[in-house]
Amino acid sequence: MTAAVPVAHAAPATRPRPGGMVRRIAQEEWRLLRRDKVALPALALLLMLLVAAAFTAWDSQRSAEAQRSRYQAQAHEEFESQPDRHPHRMVHYGHFVFRPLSPLAAFDPGVDGYTGHTLYLEGHRQNSANFGDVRQSSLLLRFGQLTPAFVLQVLAPLLLVFIGHASVARERESGTLRVLLAQGLRPGQLVAGKLLALGGVAALMLLPAAVALAAIAGTTTAPAGLAALLLAAHGLWLALWVLAVVAVSAWLPRGRDALVALLAAWACSVVLVPRLAPEAAASLLALPTRFETDIQVARELAALGDSHNPNDPYFNAFKQKVLAQYGVSRVEDLPVNYKRLLGMEGERLTSELFNRHAAESFGRQTDQLQWVDRFALLSPVLALRRVSMAAAGTDLASYRRFVEQAEQYRYHLVQALNQLQADKVQFTQDKSTRDVRIGREHWHGLADFSFTPPPATDALRRAAPAAVVLLAWAGVLALLLAAATRRLGRLVR
User: Fold this and answer.
1) 43: how many CB neighbours lie within 10 A of its CB?
2) DSSP letter at 109?
């Protein structure tokens, strides 16, 4: 992409220090970059895209969070403003909860667009989250959203390839490499200068993201440590590409060959493998469909027992246990409403069943992710995304935490309403939910839901294995660059 302009070779009167030679090489690379009619505008365009992505993602995140908070307050108000009702009618009236957004989701939305953010909570059922952005938007959303994470993970490496693919190969093609080495320049100094120059470009690419993360951490409740982890992970990602670009440019004799090889590596590692890995994992560890799950749950619910059948073995034993506990011989003599005791026991059984199936589903999804993690040996961007989503609070574990907290809230809400029926409605009068009601003041205080985000240490623990993979990639590429540097010295002797 850059013109083949030789490095200044005039022999200095006094030999400069090694660090000075590295800086001179880097300065010459930057001078060539400034003269390039394509690279510099492309870099400026990428920086503007990063700024625009950060601003639009932050604005969208704030708008979505405000909308969800407004809807949550509205659902809370509507629940508490219900008129006098039978408690069981309130059980079926249900309640809505909305998943709050992590402040760092503006940087990397992760799986949020696929999982949904609205849960309808009701008795006797455990519903899934709805209204995921991907289900409501164009299929193009599946190819990536314009966020700082997307720009740094996908577009920035491509620009580094075009800017630096000929950094070392250009010197060999133009014949200046032998002249430079004859003047006392060592191959390691040349490669270090090229690394410094391309690394400076990568640092410039990272600057808008650093400003955006600092602004998010300074104006929200986002932990500064997680914002720093996001920045460090993407900085390491760009460093991997700096090492790879310079190593391939030093290894191959022509810039054109280096460009083809690097573009192939980018297409495979950034585009192809990340698309194929989830499909392979889904094929090997397929999740049951919603229809299959509903059938299995219905079968197991039927096997639990029928609370409406007085001769059902389980619920008949439960009835005898309750009678013995209160020391009476008939349910009519109980000091509480037996119908609601029966309902509370049924809710406990069904909730345990729903939780077991949910845990199995999340466990299978976790197994799929572990399969995808194996492909990080071929594509480090998969490891980067694991670190990025964990730090941003937008990975599967964060979503699971919300669902489980919402389910705990649903269970306690339903059981609190069942307890109201047991305490406030007499068994002999509890024949119609239309005719028997209790005061509306009983609904107050039941609809409060507050999501507790995980501590920052949890995110760091989840990100650690993927971070190790990224560091291992850095080590491998550093070894490749060292081998290319030694080979470069042998070729020109």
Assistant:
1) 20
2) -
